[in-house]
Amino acid sequence: MVVLVVVRTLTPLAEPAAPAAPREEPARPQRLARIRPVAGRVATVMAWLLVIGALLLPNELAKITPWTFLRIPVEAVVGIAVLLALPARPRRVLAILAGAGLALVTVLKAVDMGFYSVLDRPFDPVFDTTLFDPAYVFLTQAVGKAGAIGAVIGVVLLVVALIVLMTLAMLRTTRQLVTHRQTATRATAALVLAWFVCAALGAQVVSDAPLAATDTAAIAKGHAAQIRTSLRDQEMFEGEAKVDVFRNTPGERLLTALRGKDVLLTFIESYGRDAIEDPLYAAQVGSALDDGNRRLAAAGFDSRSAFLTSSTAGGGSWLAHATLNSGLWIDNQKRYNTLVSSDRLTLSSAFSRASWRTVGIMPGVTQAWPEGRFYGYDQIYDAKSMGYQGPAFALATMPDQYTLTAFERLERGRAGRGPLMAEMPLTSSHAPWAPLPRMIDWNNVGDGSVFGPMAKEGESPEEVWRDGDKTRAHYRQSIQYSLTALTSYVERHGDDNLVLIFLGDHQPAPLLTGKGATHDVPISIVTRDRGVLDRISGWQWEQGIKPSKDAPVWRMDTFRDRFLTAYSPLR
């Protein structure tokens, strides 16, 4: 209003001003004409960045640096030359196919990143699609069903958007090449020369990032070779599975050196070699093992330890369990499915054949588990049948101390029973390692409701996983807890007839171990009976429950036959 008054005051009053002609706005087409060139140049630059960025993108998070994208992709050089040489219609078809194909390879790279981060290996298109269902279950437990569904929908939309955008980007860059054919031809010739010179000299911008890049071609070729190998794997596995020297061994000749013993086979989730050797964990976990050694020795127990090389890392615990039990190398879901559909003799079914009562204490089983029949258990206790009334601790349905208490109440503590063989995975050290339980007086465990406040007091997975140092600290604490719970159980309930075999199923994810960690896990045998340990004196395992870095290392699939041979001397 003030501005209007001032303007009005300054206007001459001698004669009325003629009505102002309305300002002519630029016509819409004129505005668009000025905007289009700028928008077109921006779109072209973005299209080239998208295509070149996708070609140079590695399939491991650790390899992504700003320098990674300052290289010459051979796929771009070859692609430009081919597109320039083709007539219009084939050129357009090729651009569309190349765009969609590059988008799919980019998705494959992203999936590889996830697999390298968690399982320390690339995605296997033949076998690993079966892991999407367990991944969805994991996601549901972590963020709820609505969050899991939202995440799946988001991923699908992102994939579709990437395919569309990459195809459009390829079409746009192709049009630019044709429009500036002479310049493009000269640039291509220069790039070809530069690529070959860099390749010949081995020039690198950073370590493992050569200037003459072949990332996308190498990844596609590697997965193609992987598919061929995976498709042949079934035939190889069937041949391996036919070899079983114990297949027809009668029960009276099996495990005769363990007659009358209770044998407890216990897996500690994510208990890997790094837990006792990596400086980030070794002091605290080593302290828990040293304390366990002292308490077990005071209770009259002796032990021997070594390492086994697991068939998996970062996850896939069931593959490791199947490998140890069956004596076959189970490193993918297809092998696992084939195995559990067979009549292969497992450790648990060998004990059953030799007249032990066999039970599976499975706190991690929360839904139907038909493959449990394969292991030959007389009884399976899952999460619902163990009487637990407390809260879950993320993916650990119950604390290990409760699992061990339930085992004692349901099976080992029963009067008048015969010899018992039990397999028991302990899950408190399962990712995401938050919240964590604490040890309490064994007399107060009860139905598990006492653990309720601990779950509420502990940090959430989201809080822990935002900080790498905090994640590693919680992992370390979880391993300490599981080891303490197990050794304390043996100290409290062990007797002259107990033989405990405990080991890790696999190393944790590379986030905790670093890239290139072994797949080794510690294994120990604990008993009061010196004769049981004398049977394995030829194994050269070390005394105590903490193997040194020089301890023997076996493949996990060799354990079944060595164990059955050592304790079935009349075979």
Automatic annotation (TrEMBL):
Q: Which SUPFAM superfamilies does its entry note?
A: Alkaline phosphatase-like
**UniProtKB keywords:** Membrane, Transmembrane, Transmembrane helix
Signal peptide range in chain numbering: none
Q: Which residues cross the membrane?
A: 38-57, 69-86, 93-111, 148-171, 183-203
List the taxonomic lineage: Bacteria, Bacillati, Actinomycetota, Actinomycetes, Micromonosporales
Protein origin, superkingdom: Bacteria
- Please tell me whether the keyword Cytoplasm is annotated for this protein: no
Return the InterPro entries for the record: Alkaline_phosphatase_core_sf
Report what the protein is called: Sulfatase
